[in-house]
Amino acid sequence: MPAKLARIAADRLGLIRARRPRIHVVTNTVAQTFTANALLAIGAVPSMTTAADEIGAFVAGADGLLVNLGTLEADRRGAIRIAIAAAEDKGIPWLLDPVFIDRSPARAAFARELAGLGPAAIRGNAAEIAALAEGEAIDALARRLGAVVAQTGESDHVTDGTRGLSVANGHPLMAKVTAMGCAGAAITTAFLTCGGEAAESVAAALLALGIAGEAAAEEARGPGTFAAAYLDALHGVDALELATRARLGPDLREKRS
Amino acid sequence: MPAKLARIAADRLGLIRARRPRIHVVTNTVAQTFTANALLAIGAVPSMTTAADEIGAFVAGADGLLVNLGTLEADRRGAIRIAIAAAEDKGIPWLLDPVFIDRSPARAAFARELAGLGPAAIRGNAAEIAALAEGEAIDALARRLGAVVAQTGESDHVTDGTRGLSVANGHPLMAKVTAMGCAGAAITTAFLTCGGEAAESVAAALLALGIAGEAAAEEARGPGTFAAAYLDALHGVDALELATRARLGPDLREKRS
Amino acid sequence: MPAKLARIAADRLGLIRARRPRIHVVTNTVAQTFTANALLAIGAVPSMTTAADEIGAFVAGADGLLVNLGTLEADRRGAIRIAIAAAEDKGIPWLLDPVFIDRSPARAAFARELAGLGPAAIRGNAAEIAALAEGEAIDALARRLGAVVAQTGESDHVTDGTRGLSVANGHPLMAKVTAMGCAGAAITTAFLTCGGEAAESVAAALLALGIAGEAAAEEARGPGTFAAAYLDALHGVDALELATRARLGPDLREKRS
Questions:
Q1: Quick one: which of A10, B226, A53 has its CA closest to C103?
Q2: How far is residue A242's CA from residue C15's CA, in Å, rounded to a whole number?
Q3: CA distances from A50 to A62, A195, C30, C252 (A)
Q4: Fewer CB within 10 Å: N-end or C-end of chain A?
Q5: Which residues of C touch A57 (CB under 8 A)?
Q6: What is the model's pTM?
Q7: Is B8 helix (H, G, I), strand (E, B) or coil?
Q8: Does the beta carbon of A103 lie under 8 angstroms from any beta carbon of chain B?
Q9: Residue B72 to residue B248: CA distance in whole angstroms
Q10: Is A52–C74 a contact, with Cβ atoms under 8 angstroms apart?
Q11: How far is CA B239 from CA B6, B7, B9, B15, in A?
């Protein structure tokens, strides 16, 4: 199983580096630069406008869309609706990252509205997924929305409602760099543009991200040098490194029972 | 005296790493990423929304607030007023950083209004503090506002109106990285959440920042590697390093007379 | 010829480090931090507000202005018009960077309007310059606008309509870091504040940028460490390094025929 997911991750990375997919990213201003650099590092091409009169054209020219709800200014909501409509219209995958919705009721309500509009995947930490699910089990949430749901943490759990995958790679320094999760969601969106089974694409992306974090930690002296080394690692990660480092986590459903 | 302030800095840092205070930061978009990374590096948890319908909830869930006036868009003023009201309501400390008010009369007027709303501390360079004080002595300004005033520069001067502290640590490369001051103000806000005497918290924060800059310069080959090394140093700085590097500056009042 | 342009670049850099020109930058939020750090690294002083009631005062106090059209929110257009009027009023040089206008018709129309307002220089990649020129040859475009036009790419081509200069320095990792072009445009603006022939200032800036990229690549293990090393290289680049690394490219008109 780790070998299989590592192989899928290597295949998807190869496709991204060859095709250079355009990923349009609606994200908070804190995360923009690191997210753009992470996308460039794996071979994708980022664009980031949120201007209402431009975003439709940008999404129409893109291969995937990330909607991140951090620092959600009022005028960004309109832009997000236009962007999602353009993605649905063109049939490209989009991913919802409901950042900090456990801290703001207004933002949680907006996230629940967007979750019903057909995202290919939703990614959040345990508190964010709980705020979105409102008591529903994560498998049931995935089935109801028809979306892959990924809950990140010490282990990452991915489900499409029928099948669960779990990844145990990563490093504690990843929690000491801002926008690490947002950049990861952007890279996951790039993996979704490759086709294939969506749950596998999401889990393969999380595997590659965790392995890049482990490789970077070996080069770093703290969170500052780690952030730079992480971009280096995303740029250089290959099939051999993925195969030798891959570690799958406990299944989510077993863990819950 | 250096030994005492170094010990206070080590104590405050220990508290921050143990308690992980949430710091809500209203700052300019240039400074957001580095500021978030600096807060994460010392063990605090940043949030940064400026959306009017969200910021109240974020500040209500925070332990401290930083108000930085850089790149001050019109709609950010309303958000700042909401944030300060929420901080005063909850009784958490907030710090005012009147960035570049010497370059914009409109911004200076707004800063003077905010300075009257009860900040725990105000931090600026000589030109910014002069624009705020309008001829008043900095001790008198601190007494009138009931706030700690910190004037940063080659030496940093801190006063609560009755007592002055001065710190001489730092490195010239700190002036070659954008947002170094803004990130320092955020870390100073985290120090203020620890309780104890506010002037000591502010001076201890400036001591730790200057020492991290000196340690980082030993690892750097220029301003780019310095920025990364500075985050590493903030993450790793400990009681021994603080004690051995601490250098207090000349007293502000002596210097003036 | 390479020796002459290298000498001009060294002279301009010496002036910037001595005079510390203030550069006001209207740029997208993705590029702000790296652009500010690049300006600081060469010795200039950045400011970045886009607030309509502040930007006039900031530009009036500046020595040069960069107008970058990335992530062009509606309210930024008004601020850009105010900024350009202030620059024309004071007689300081301003540079137009029409980012991604090939991807958004609304943005292209706005860029063509601004191009008629008297920029000292316009900088873009081949697709952006083509979208601006609408079929016109780049020399003709430069003559009609009375502006230096720089088309960046594997080789950079600079023309003022009568004279063409071409620079072949640079490194592929420069395309793997976001805001590299935006930061380069800001540094080019700083070079324009030095006086002298504008086409030479622009070509000298592009030469220095490409050489810094080559020097940085020798220190880097990937795009993350490259970005930090690039700022180090901008900070440290000197006359000897410029002279020994300078490589001029093929003339644009020869290439086209």
A1: A53
A2: 50
A3: 14, 26, 12, 36
A4: C
A5: 103-106
A6: 0.94
A7: helix
A8: yes
A9: 34
A10: yes
A11: 7, 7, 8, 13
